[in-house]
Amino acid sequence: MSIDLSSPELYFNRELSWLKFNSRVLAQAKDCSLPPLERMKFIAIYGTNLDEFYMIRVAGLKALFKARIQETAIDKITPTEQLERIHKTLHKEHKTLESSFKEIMKELKEHNVYIKNYSKLTERQQEIIKEQFFEQIYPVIMPIAIDATHPFPHLNNLSFALALKFEDRRGNIKHGLIRIPRILPRFLKVEHCFVPIESVVEYFSTELFHGLKLISSTPFRVTRNADIEIEEEEADDFMEILEEGIRARNRGTLVRLEIMEGTDDDLIGFLTTHLHLDGHDIYHYKIPLNLGTLWHIVGQEELAHLTLPTYTPKTLPPFDDNSDIFEAIEKKDVLLYHPYESFDPVVRFIKDASKDPNTLSMRMTLYRVGKNSPIVTALIRAAQDGKQVTVLVELKARFDEENNLHWAKALEDAGAHVIYGITGLKVHAKIAQITKRKGSKLQGYLHLGTGNYNPITSRIYTDMSYFTSKKDFNKDATKFFHFITGFADHISLKKLIIAPLGIKPKLISMIEEEATHKEEGLIILKANSLVDPDIIQALYQASISGCKIELIIRGICVLKPGIKGVSENISVYSIIGKYLEHPRISFFKHDSCQCYISSADLMPRNLIRRIEIMTPIEDASLQQKIRQILSLQLKDSKLRWKLKSSGEYKQVKQEGESVNNHDILEDYVTQIYDKAQKDISEYSRRITNKVIKG
After folding, report:
1. Which of 428, 447, 582, 662 is catalytic?
2. Can you tell me the distance from the alpha carbon of 289 to that of 151, in angstroms, rounded to the nearest whole number?
3. Contact call for residues 246 and 401 (beta carbons, < 8 A)
4. What does the alpha-carbon distance between residue 259 and residue 134 come to, in Å, rounded to a whole number?
5. Distance CA 299, CA 148 (A)
6. Minimal CA–CA distance to 62: which of 276, 254, 284, 275?
7. Dist. CA 131–CA 298, nearest whole Å
8. Same domain, yes or no, for 147 and 177?
9. How far apart are CA 343 and CA 674, in angstroms?
10. Which alpha helices (DSSP H) does 572-635 contain, by range?
11. What is the mean pLDDT of residues 473-489?
């Protein structure tokens, strides 16, 4: 009997799966084996994740509901049902969030660290904060009266403000607002006490609304639809229309209101009347609003002992002796695993090329580079020196559009050839190519990665970097850049596989081939998300044939494992810990290459609507390195969660000593580094002695 592998019963809902991921993040905040500020860090991440979920995913569902669209994905759950389940899940999880926060604050109290409202401070502390208020806050904030002649103001996305209820001398009720701009600190600090700014502003609110008596107040925060829609085909000036899109983000439909629990009903009515939100979209908190700003406390240097020890990434051979990085790449291919292995060689790759008079051209893609980017600075220098610099800056990288616009303009001003994305596609590929003159010939050098060219995030995201000088790879890279800068509608490559045309068919082909080996087959896929139905159906078919499949999917997974006769040979794991798991890796036991790294997640948007690169790793020693990393992660008994067919995740536990792959890899790389440094030191000593004796 044939099985309908497209049946909705075989798929989890994408949005609800994402909520499960964020629940796993929140679970880290309950882990008492972690230091208190490490736990608080996960609450900050949980809050930031939730902001983006509401701005994009919930906003999208609301738009579908408004358009009366009933079916949206392979699971066939309507937008209405999804919104109901999301609200139910989040309102239920609210208690876990608040109890976790209170547990952390209780532990911080033992270290004399507090979050206290202004009214709870000692007189001496109040005097210090009062001075800060009148010197740094009072001149910046403004009272906003709301009445028949003073309309309710427009509030930008993620605006944070105070709603206030007053009584005048005649006994009339008045309403007002005080916005708290993002340029102001979220917490004012006195000793090791962090004072929420809203409690200070509330205390001194009558200094702004003179002659009124404060009856009640609440801090509140609004979230808007932040998904930018750009009609690229109609855009004469793409940069101009993108800038307009960024401004429009602050005018999107309101989708969420966060306020404090116990707020005066009249104030709630005042806000909801003006904001036009229903009860489902109102979240009442007993803990400070704007959870992402808890980083302000987590990042305090003097409290570093209350987080996990900071690991310093190591530069290992062959890049550890400051010799010519390009000569090292010519000798052999190199694979780095960040953040255990430093991202510095990637920066050096670009920096050294920018200064070398033998460098003829530099080409790369930029998706998220961060502020004060040393890589972009080096590209600007190279362009100013007359080198041919070609950079594709993806202006549509969500929430990085403004930063990318800034860098794109700076590069163009320096004389670089800048491409502002590709019509209809996002360029998410991570590739850099350096071409040098070497004698009478030209030599190419390549970097291909799974993560962004961002030295800051490279310290907290796990990712892979691959360096090669092989001719076939460089020829493909040259064709790739010609493809994205020219008019070609297709591309033929020997080694590199690209989306939207190649990665998905290649993956499905390799899955189908591995399935022919039945019980002897083994597939391991590591990604951030698994959503693409065609990939999932190929995996189901492979499982039916008897092939063993291990999936390490950090976030969304709509595949249902453990279904008898369909997916009983599939195991799905998620690793949540100190580092954000970010590399995309594929392993096929019987494939001629076995190992591939990629910039693409297993989602339709990556495989169909983006330009991505998948890179075969041909060197046997590098393949072994990848297999060892995957094997270690599949043995992790501290950070690994297993997905059940019910949709619930259960943390993997085992008897005996627990295996934490993050800790083990830190220790392992440190040992290699220490040995290399010892060998270098011994070599230097021998040379010195030889010189002295000579």
Report:
1. 428
2. 25
3. yes
4. 26
5. 45
6. 254
7. 25
8. yes
9. 18
10. 604-608, 620-635
11. 89
- Percentages (nearest 5) of helix, strand, coil residues in the chain: 45, 25, 35
The length of the chain in residues reads 694
Catalytic: 582? no
User: Does 649 lie in the same domain as 550?
Assistant: yes
Q: Is the preceding omega at residue 583 within 30 degrees of 0, hence cis?
A: no
Contact 244, 140 (CB under 8 A): no
Question: By C-alpha distance, which of 438, 441, 434, 444 is closest to 358?
Answer: 438
Write down the number of H helices and E strands in the chain.
19, 27
Indicate whether 686 and 644 sit together in one domain: no
- For residue 220, which phi and psi values (nearest 5 degrees)? -150, 165
CB atoms within 10 A of CB 555: 22
CA atoms of 212 and 216, how far apart (whole Å): 12
Domain end, chosen from 427, 459, 485, is at: 485
Helix (H) or strand (E) holding 344: helix 344-355
Please tell me whether residues 651 and 686 are part of one structural domain.
Answer: no
Backbone φ and ψ of 643, nearest 5°? -85, 130
What one-character DSSP code corresponds to residue 345? H
User: Cα–Cα distance between 74 and 532 in angstroms, integer?
Assistant: 10
Q: How many percent of the chain have pLDDT more than 90?
A: 79
Q: Are residues 599 and 649 in the same domain?
A: yes
The pLDDT value given to residue 233: 44
pLDDT in tens, 241-272: 545 555 555 668 899 999 999 999 999 999 99
φ, ψ (nearest 5 deg) of residue 228: -90, 125
Verdict on whether the full-model pTM lies above 0.90:
yes
Alpha-carbon span 434 to 327, nearest angstrom: 13
pLDDT in tens, 6-18: 999 999 999 999 9
303 is a domain residue: no
DSSP label at 311? P
Q: Answer yes or no: do 480 and 350 share one domain.
A: yes
Domain count within the chain? 4
Considering the domain architecture, whether residues 667 and 584 belong to the same structural domain is answered as no
| Domain containing residue 207 | 121-277
Q: How far apart (Å, rounded) are the C-alpha atoms in residues 21 and 42?
A: 12
- Residue 689: the pLDDT is 58
Average of pLDDT values for 610-622?
96
The closest of 287, 289, 285 to 263, measured between CA atoms, is 285
Question: What pLDDT score was predicted for residue 458?
Answer: 95
**Tokens (6 digits) for 375:** 């890589």
CB 645 within 8 A of CB 561: yes
